[in-house]
Each structure stands twice: as structure tokens, then as C-alpha cells.
Task: inverse folding
């Protein structure tokens, strides 16, 4: 079998997962996902991360094809989440003399997940490991995406093995490198991956990016998605933006929760007014229908956000409440915000939205727009005012 190589001695060992429906059993995978691992063959052989448990057989077979009877000396564990650590136990069984390279936060997880206590080689910030002509150095990247996450830099080929950072949803269908595939497809999946999985850790991502800026990087080998070798500035720029919660484009995401269409009517009214104000990117989402994964990704994309909810049992309509919880958990910021609601028989939707905005230090623009039942003309006029204020804020930002 032909193997994909990042250089003469570095092999791509990724596998495609087209079976799993939900990443982390939480986030949809309509386009699948790739789990990437890499093998450096030198005087010493080093495996960088592994793959998810269910794809181990193909993975082990590839290693055997490349190495034959040659043992693996080191397994570098950049990240312990089981989508990458799933095959560690089998690797240790197959190569009992292997040394597992990790940091002080890696090993308690290694013991906790797999009961492995032996064969550990602990590294700290900036430590190096010579394999022959290749030399690895290690840099801690806590919370990008778990506390033990680190990245590994190979100095001969200037390759950064970046763990989850710069990764993407979507399988690698033939092309592995960024110049072999159409990035238009991956653009949304990259943002969806970042916002859904790493989005909460913007500050930590900023710190990691500052650290990486001191390295001369010619290739980025992430654990998901394409290997970057031609568009490194592109992906670095996206990560700078996303981790600072900066939107990519002018536009407004309108999310609504509506039981019988009255709150939806307000959303449509707002959208029309935004359009009249010259906003071209307007996406309306029904929180009951579209998975939060996609809504969150578009919220990361656009600088305007307008959320409306019906009241439900004295509080917010649950599908909207669930989205608000996620956004609060991710510390969403830097958005021109509008809120609206429908009090129906009890109220509580708009009040919850107001409280949520206060907690996130986001100031809703425009008047209070809360319909009592079906929105009347006065209430729709208030919705229009919100649209105008959000549109103006977007225009004035430029
Ligand atoms: Fe791809 Fe955080 O694991």
C-alpha cells in the first residue's frame, strides 16, 4: 500500500471516521472526521499520537507495513482525549519497550484511562529529544484543548505536530495536504471545529499562538483535518481571529425559539429590516431545529447576533436556553447584540435573555421588544428599531 509522507521519513498515519454520528457524542459529523497520527522513522522511531479505538486495526496495519519488525522507541502523547489516545494500550502491548513521552499532566490521565504506569518519559517546556537527524522539542499548550495538551516541533523539517489546534471536522477524502484539496469545503468545518471544541479557550489559544510565533513553521500536522504546508498564514490568521472572538464578516445571525410561529414572525420582521438597512449576510435559525453546533459556528463568523425566545413555564424556551448556556460557557463576546421575546401567558423568555446578556457583559441594542401573544404593529415596530440599531453598529464598526 502507498503511504502518504510529510517528508522522506515522516509518514501520515491518519484514519477517516465516516461512521460516528456525533463527535464527543455531542457535535454532529455529517462530513465525518479524520484522526491523524504521524510516524517519524529515524535511528529512533517516534509515533506522534494514535487514533480513536474503533479505527485501531487499520492504524496498526499501516504501522506494520512501514516498520516491519522494527520497534517503535517513543510514543509522543500530545493530547490524551480518547479520539487520539484510543490505541495507546494496544501500541504498548505490541511494543512493550516503548517509552511514552508526555508531561506531568499526561501521566495521571494515562493511568486513569488505560492503567498504564510504566515506561513514562516526562518532558517539560522546551525539552528536546533527538531521534537521529530529527530532533523533537515540546511546548505546553494547556486547554487547547485539555489541560495536558502539548505540541511537538520537529526541527529538521520544521513540522509542528499541533494536536487539536488548527484541526477540522470533515474526513480527508483523497487529499491530505492543504494544497491537495479545496479549502472552500473545510473553511466552515474548521470554524465549526474551533468554535465547538476549542471556542471556550480563546485566552489559552492566544497564549499558545504567541508561543508558536517564535518557531519557524513550514508544516502543521494537526490531529484532525488537512496537513498545512501552503496556507499556514491562512490558518494562523483564522486562529488569531477566532481566539480573540473577532468575527470574520459583517452579518447577523438571528436565532429564535417559537412554539406556534409568533416569535418566528418577529425574527422574520427583524431580518427584513436588516436587509433594508443594507445587511447582506443574514442567517435565521430555529433553535428547535438546527443543531447548536452550526448556529455557534455562524455566531463565530458574523459580528451581529439577535436572539429571540418565547416564554416557557415562566422561563426561556428550552432550546434557546440550551444555546444560551453553551454560548455563556464559551464566553462569547464582541458581538452587536439584539434580543426580543414573547411573553405569552407568563413571560420569562425576554427576562432570561436580558440576564444572560448582563452576565456576559453584552449590551442589547434597541428598545425592549416583547410581544404579548401574536406581535402587533407596535411590537413589530420595536423589532425594527432593534434591527436598525444592530445594522448601524455593524456599519459604524467599519
Ligand atoms: Fe481531537 Fe481534544 O481531541
Result:
Amino acid at each position: 500500500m502507498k503511504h502518504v509522507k510529510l517528508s522522506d521519513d515522516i509518514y501520515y498515519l491518519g484514519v477517516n471516521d465516516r461512521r460516528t454520528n456525533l463527535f464527543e457524542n455531542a457535535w454532529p459529523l455529517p462530513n465525518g472526521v479524520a484522526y491523524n497520527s504521524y510516524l517519524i522513522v529515524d535511528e529512533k522511531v517516534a509515533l506522534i499520537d494514535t487514533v480513536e479505538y474503533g479505527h485501531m486495526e487499520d492504524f496498526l496495519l499501516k504501522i506494520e507495513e512501514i516498520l516491519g519488525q522494527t520497534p517503535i522507541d517513543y510514543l509522543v502523547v500530545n493530547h490524551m482525549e480518547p479520539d487520539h489516545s484510543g490505541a495507546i494500550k494496544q501500541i504498548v502491548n505490541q511494543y512493550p519497550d516503548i517509552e511514552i513521552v508526555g508531561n506531568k499532566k499526561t501521566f495521571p490521565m494515562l493511568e486513569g484511562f488505560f492503567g498504564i504506569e510504566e515506561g513514562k518519559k516526562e518532558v517539560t517546556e522546551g525539552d528536546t529529544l533527538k531521534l537521529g537527524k530529527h530532533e523533537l522539542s515540546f511546548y505546553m499548550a494547556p486547554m487547547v484543548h485539555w489541560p495536558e495538551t502539548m505540541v511537538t516541533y520537529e526541527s529538521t523539517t520544521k513540522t509542528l505536530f499541533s494536536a487539536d489546534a488548527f484541526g477540522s471536522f470533515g474526513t480527508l477524502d483523497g487529499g491530505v495536504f492543504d494544497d491537495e484539496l479545496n479549502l472552500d469545503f473545510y473553511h466552515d468545518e474548521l470554524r465549526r471545529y474551533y468554535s465547538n471544541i476549542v471556542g471556550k479557550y480563546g485566552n489559552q489559544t492566544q497564549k499558545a499562538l504567541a508561543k508558536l510565533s517564535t518557531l519557524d513553521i513550514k508544516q502543521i500536522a494537526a490531529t484532525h483535518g488537512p496537513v498545512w504546508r501552503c496556507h499556514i498564514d491562512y490558518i494562523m490568521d483564522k486562529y488569531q481571529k477566532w481566539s480573540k472572538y473577532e468575527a470574520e464578516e459583517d452579518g447577523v445571525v438571528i436565532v429564535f425559539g417559537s412554539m406556534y410561529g409568533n416569535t418566528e414572525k418577529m425574527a422574520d420582521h427583524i431580518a427584513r429590516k436588516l436587509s433594508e438597512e443594507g445587511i447582506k449576510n443574514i442567517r435565521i435559525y430555529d433553535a428547535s431545529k438546527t443543531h447548536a453546533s452550526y448556529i455557534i459556528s455562524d455566531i463565530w463568523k458574523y459580528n451581529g447576533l439577535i436572539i429571540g425566545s418565547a416564554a416557557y413555564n415562566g422561563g426561556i424556551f428550552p432550546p434557546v436556553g440550551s444555546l444560551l448556556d453553551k454560548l455563556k460557557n464559551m464566553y462569547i463576546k464582541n458581538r452587536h447584540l439584539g434580543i426580543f421575546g414573547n411573553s405569552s401567558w407568563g413571560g420569562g423568555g425576554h427576562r432570561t435573555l436580558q440576564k444572560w446578556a448582563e452576565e456576559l457583559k453584552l449590551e442589547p441594542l434597541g428598545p425592549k421588544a416583547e410581544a404579548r401573544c401574536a406581535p402587533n404593529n407596535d411590537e413589530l415596530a420595536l423589532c425594527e428599531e432593534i434591527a436598525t440599531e444592530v445594522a448601524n453598529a455593524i456599519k459604524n464598526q467599519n
